[in-house]
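hey can u check if this looks right to u? its 174 residues, i copy pasted from the old doc so theres a chance i mangled smth
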Amino acid sequence: MQKIVVVPYNPQWPLKFQAEKSLIEGAVKDNLVALYHIGSTSVPKLKAKPIIDMLLIVEDINKLDEESLVFEKMDYEVMGEFGISGRRYYRKGGNHRSHQIHAFQFDQLYDIQRHLAFRDYLRAHDNVAQEYGELKETLALLYPESIADYGDGKDAFVKQTEKAALIWEWQNRE
């Protein structure tokens, strides 16, 4: 069983992303559009579960499905859509998860944009990031062995912040 632990920001997280990014880019090759570090570990000073979340954007999601064995050889568990239509989800590390990939085809714009907007909003709004970190820390203490309860506890905050982030992003375009 995965124990939920939220820890202070670790400046090694971006380096861990960069190392994994090189492996994934090599595996995806010509299908790659972009690969981003997302999630709490991508936001400086934010408390987080020490799991590197990545947003993989590909030209053809079906071609990505054909590469499942490549991900398995990199120790990723191939999880399919895993609750989000059109997404491909991969996780590494079992109960001691270290990395997660959320993959989308380039034209699944809403899902791609909401991940990036949420990250960028937290990077630009320290007070919101701090509030989010404190919420996650509290939930981890309350539900150390229930990822469902932990996720449910964050849901309203994430949805509210995601909405604010998407609006903020539109308001700050040139």
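The chain has one domain: 13-169.
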